[in-house]
Amino acid sequence: MQITNPEIDKGKAFDWGRTSELYAKFRDIYPEIFYQKIIARNIGLKHQKILDLGTGTGVLPRNLYAYGAEWTGIDISENQIIQAKKLAEQQNMQITFQACSAEQANFPENYFDAVTACQCFWYFNHEILTPILSKILKQNGKILILYMA
Question: Which of 28, 33, 120, 122 is the most exposed place for a label (fewest CB within 10 A)?
Protein backbone atom coordinates (compact mmCIF):
# COMPACT_ATOMS: atom_id res chain seq x y z
CA MET A 1 0.00 0.00 0.00
CA GLN A 2 1.46 3.32 -1.04
CA ILE A 3 1.22 6.19 1.41
CA THR A 4 1.51 9.85 0.54
CA ASN A 5 1.79 12.75 2.90
CA PRO A 6 2.60 16.26 1.66
CA GLU A 7 4.47 16.88 4.93
CA ILE A 8 6.89 13.97 4.33
CA ASP A 9 9.39 13.84 1.47
CA LYS A 10 7.41 16.53 -0.38
CA GLY A 11 4.54 14.11 -0.92
CA LYS A 12 6.58 11.37 -2.60
CA ALA A 13 4.75 8.04 -2.22
CA PHE A 14 6.26 5.32 -0.05
CA ASP A 15 5.31 1.74 0.78
CA TRP A 16 6.50 0.05 3.99
CA GLY A 17 5.22 -3.28 2.71
CA ARG A 18 7.97 -3.49 0.10
CA THR A 19 10.59 -3.89 2.83
CA SER A 20 8.66 -6.06 5.29
CA GLU A 21 10.87 -9.14 5.01
CA LEU A 22 13.98 -7.01 5.57
CA TYR A 23 12.31 -5.30 8.53
CA ALA A 24 11.54 -8.71 10.03
CA LYS A 25 15.14 -9.79 9.58
CA PHE A 26 17.06 -6.64 10.55
CA ARG A 27 14.82 -4.08 12.34
CA ASP A 28 15.01 -5.49 15.87
CA ILE A 29 17.82 -3.08 16.73
CA TYR A 30 17.05 -1.40 20.03
CA PRO A 31 19.30 -2.07 23.05
CA GLU A 32 17.92 -3.52 26.28
CA ILE A 33 18.11 -0.13 28.03
CA PHE A 34 15.53 1.19 25.55
CA TYR A 35 12.99 -1.37 26.78
CA GLN A 36 13.97 -0.85 30.41
CA LYS A 37 13.14 2.86 30.08
CA ILE A 38 9.66 1.93 28.80
CA ILE A 39 9.11 -0.47 31.70
CA ALA A 40 10.37 2.21 34.13
CA ARG A 41 7.45 4.37 32.91
CA ASN A 42 5.09 1.57 33.99
CA ILE A 43 4.11 0.69 30.45
CA GLY A 44 3.97 -2.92 29.28
CA LEU A 45 3.42 -4.52 32.66
CA LYS A 46 1.28 -7.49 33.66
CA HIS A 47 -2.50 -6.94 33.46
CA GLN A 48 -2.14 -3.93 31.14
CA LYS A 49 -3.67 -3.72 27.69
CA ILE A 50 -1.37 -1.88 25.29
CA LEU A 51 -1.98 -0.71 21.73
CA ASP A 52 1.12 -0.27 19.57
CA LEU A 53 0.46 2.08 16.65
CA GLY A 54 2.53 1.62 13.50
CA THR A 55 3.76 -1.66 14.96
CA GLY A 56 5.56 -2.73 11.79
CA THR A 57 6.93 -6.20 12.50
CA GLY A 58 5.90 -5.95 16.16
CA VAL A 59 9.28 -4.97 17.60
CA LEU A 60 7.89 -3.32 20.77
CA PRO A 61 5.25 -5.93 21.61
CA ARG A 62 7.63 -8.82 21.01
CA ASN A 63 10.48 -7.35 23.05
CA LEU A 64 8.23 -6.37 25.94
CA TYR A 65 6.02 -9.46 25.84
CA ALA A 66 7.80 -11.14 28.77
CA TYR A 67 6.66 -8.36 31.13
CA GLY A 68 3.11 -9.65 30.88
CA ALA A 69 1.04 -7.00 29.12
CA GLU A 70 -1.63 -7.93 26.60
CA TRP A 71 -0.44 -6.36 23.35
CA THR A 72 -2.31 -5.33 20.22
CA GLY A 73 -0.29 -4.02 17.28
CA ILE A 74 -1.73 -2.24 14.27
CA ASP A 75 -0.06 -1.10 11.08
CA ILE A 76 -1.31 0.25 7.78
CA SER A 77 0.88 -2.25 5.90
CA GLU A 78 -0.57 -5.72 5.59
CA ASN A 79 2.87 -7.07 4.71
CA GLN A 80 4.31 -5.71 7.95
CA ILE A 81 1.51 -7.38 9.89
CA ILE A 82 2.13 -10.69 8.11
CA GLN A 83 5.76 -10.56 9.25
CA ALA A 84 4.77 -9.52 12.80
CA LYS A 85 2.44 -12.51 13.07
CA LYS A 86 5.13 -14.88 11.78
CA LEU A 87 7.73 -13.61 14.25
CA ALA A 88 5.33 -13.74 17.21
CA GLU A 89 4.23 -17.25 16.26
CA GLN A 90 7.86 -18.42 15.97
CA GLN A 91 8.46 -17.10 19.50
CA ASN A 92 5.22 -18.62 20.84
CA MET A 93 3.76 -15.21 21.71
CA GLN A 94 0.05 -14.43 21.89
CA ILE A 95 -0.03 -10.94 20.38
CA THR A 96 -2.94 -9.58 18.38
CA PHE A 97 -1.89 -7.92 15.13
CA GLN A 98 -4.16 -6.32 12.57
CA ALA A 99 -3.71 -4.33 9.40
CA CYS A 100 -5.41 -0.95 9.65
CA SER A 101 -4.43 2.67 9.82
CA ALA A 102 -4.23 4.33 13.21
CA GLU A 103 -6.95 6.73 12.10
CA GLN A 104 -9.30 3.80 11.44
CA ALA A 105 -8.62 2.04 14.75
CA ASN A 106 -11.88 0.69 16.12
CA PHE A 107 -11.62 -0.51 19.70
CA PRO A 108 -13.99 -0.33 22.66
CA GLU A 109 -14.08 2.79 24.80
CA ASN A 110 -11.81 2.84 27.85
CA TYR A 111 -10.08 -0.34 26.69
CA PHE A 112 -6.32 0.37 26.68
CA ASP A 113 -4.07 1.30 29.58
CA ALA A 114 -1.48 2.74 27.20
CA VAL A 115 -0.77 3.46 23.55
CA THR A 116 2.74 3.34 22.12
CA ALA A 117 4.05 4.68 18.84
CA CYS A 118 7.69 4.06 17.96
CA GLN A 119 9.27 5.97 15.09
CA CYS A 120 5.92 6.61 13.42
CA PHE A 121 3.84 9.30 15.12
CA TRP A 122 4.55 11.99 12.52
CA TYR A 123 2.87 9.86 9.84
CA PHE A 124 -0.55 10.05 11.48
CA ASN A 125 -3.30 12.61 11.01
CA HIS A 126 -3.37 13.94 14.55
CA GLU A 127 -6.72 15.73 14.14
CA ILE A 128 -8.37 12.39 13.41
CA LEU A 129 -6.26 10.24 15.74
CA THR A 130 -6.41 12.31 18.93
CA PRO A 131 -10.16 11.84 19.58
CA ILE A 132 -9.79 8.12 18.86
CA LEU A 133 -7.01 7.76 21.42
CA SER A 134 -8.98 9.78 23.94
CA LYS A 135 -11.91 7.40 23.48
CA ILE A 136 -10.05 4.07 23.63
CA LEU A 137 -7.69 4.94 26.51
CA LYS A 138 -8.79 4.29 30.07
CA GLN A 139 -8.92 7.21 32.47
CA ASN A 140 -5.32 8.11 33.32
CA GLY A 141 -4.16 6.09 30.30
CA LYS A 142 -0.75 6.89 28.86
CA ILE A 143 0.54 7.68 25.40
CA LEU A 144 4.21 6.97 24.81
CA ILE A 145 5.71 8.42 21.65
CA LEU A 146 9.17 7.05 20.96
CA TYR A 147 11.49 8.80 18.56
CA MET A 148 15.20 8.30 18.12
CA ALA A 149 17.12 11.00 16.31
Answer: 33
